């Protein structure tokens, strides 16, 4: 199923319009394999035929299915364990001291895929009952994929999914086996909720988050779209909150809304607007 330039452009424009992601040359090879199941289901012979179908009015459902198939929903529990160690041992204790008065934390897992990242965070809190007693913990997971969000809301994982990233004790403590699938227990599910959301839109409630995890989402954006995404993240995070990106992502040279943290890989803090504008005002006043 060769993808010619015209068909590639139509499919790429659709993906960019719906998600902000770019179908670059480096990702072009995925089109045929990602859409193979869709081709069989709809009796489509090649990508040229698919592109023609997408151009017809009334094909919104097909367009949605194409976008869902092209999204990379790869994830697993405690993905990149070192990052969760930084969260458990440095970021969350820092936030605990800052929020001790109100005893409430709100966390945004942006690009949460099928929910493993949000549930991994919930397990960290559940494994430290003494530290987080009487705290209200809210973890919001969002993703542009409606299919992924439905999976996350179910809290149910296959044997393959449950074995990726968690220990046997965590599996037995936080999940219940049922007919070959594993269901997350209520005590960790109660900390999480999931919502379909495009990161390029306004931040979802509850507004300013104490911690935002947005890992391996910005990789597929062009510089302009990435800058817009940083603006949205900055408007949704508390002034003294934290942003965690993926290993291949950085704010350096991408945005002035965040600065690297003094500790932790891929960890950043917001740059306050007043501080950004202070030096230019000070220089102007001195002249």
UniProtKB/TrEMBL annotation:
Pfam families: CheR. Residues 1-263 form the CheR-type methyltransferase domain. It comes from the Bacteria. GO terms for molecular function: S-adenosylmethionine-dependent methyltransferase activity. GO terms for biological process: methylation. Keywords: Methyltransferase, Transferase. This is Protein-glutamate O-methyltransferase CheR.
């Amino acid at each position: 199923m060769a993808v010619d330039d015209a068909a590639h452009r139509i499919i790429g424009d659709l993906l960019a319009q719906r998600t902000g992601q770019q179908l670059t040359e480096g990702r072009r090879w995925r089109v045929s394999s990602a859409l193979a199941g869709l081709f069989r289901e709809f009796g489509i012979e090649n990508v040229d035929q698919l592109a023609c179908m997408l151009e017809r009015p009334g094909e919104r459902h097909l367009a949605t299915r194409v976008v869902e198939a092209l999204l990379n929903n790869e994830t697993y529990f405690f993905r990149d364990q070192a990052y969760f160690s930084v969260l458990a041992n440095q970021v969350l204790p820092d936030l605990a001291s800052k929020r001790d008065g109100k005893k409430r934390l709100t966390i945004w897992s942006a690009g949460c895929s099928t929910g493993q990242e949000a549930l991994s965070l919930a397990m960290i809190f559940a494994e430290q009952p003494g530290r987080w007693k009487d705290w209200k913990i809210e973890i919001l997971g969002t993703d542009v994929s409606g299919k992924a969000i439905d999976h996350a809301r179910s809290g149910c994982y296959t044997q393959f999914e449950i074995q990726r990233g968690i220990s046997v004790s965590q599996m037995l403590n936080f999940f219940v086996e049922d007919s070959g699938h594993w269901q997350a227990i209520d005590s960790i599910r109660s900390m999480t909720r999931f919502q379909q959301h495009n990161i390029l839109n306004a931040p979802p409630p509850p507004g300013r988050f104490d911690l935002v995890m947005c890992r391996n989402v910005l990789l597929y954006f062009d510089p302009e779209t990435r800058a817009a995404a940083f603006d949205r993240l900055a408007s949704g995070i508390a002034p003294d909150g934290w942003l965690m990106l993926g290993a291949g992502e950085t704010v350096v040279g991408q945005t002035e809304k965040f600065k690297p943290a003094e500790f932790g890989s891929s960890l950043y803090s917001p740059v306050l607007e007043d501080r950004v504008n202070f030096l230019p005002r000070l220089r102007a006043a001195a002249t």
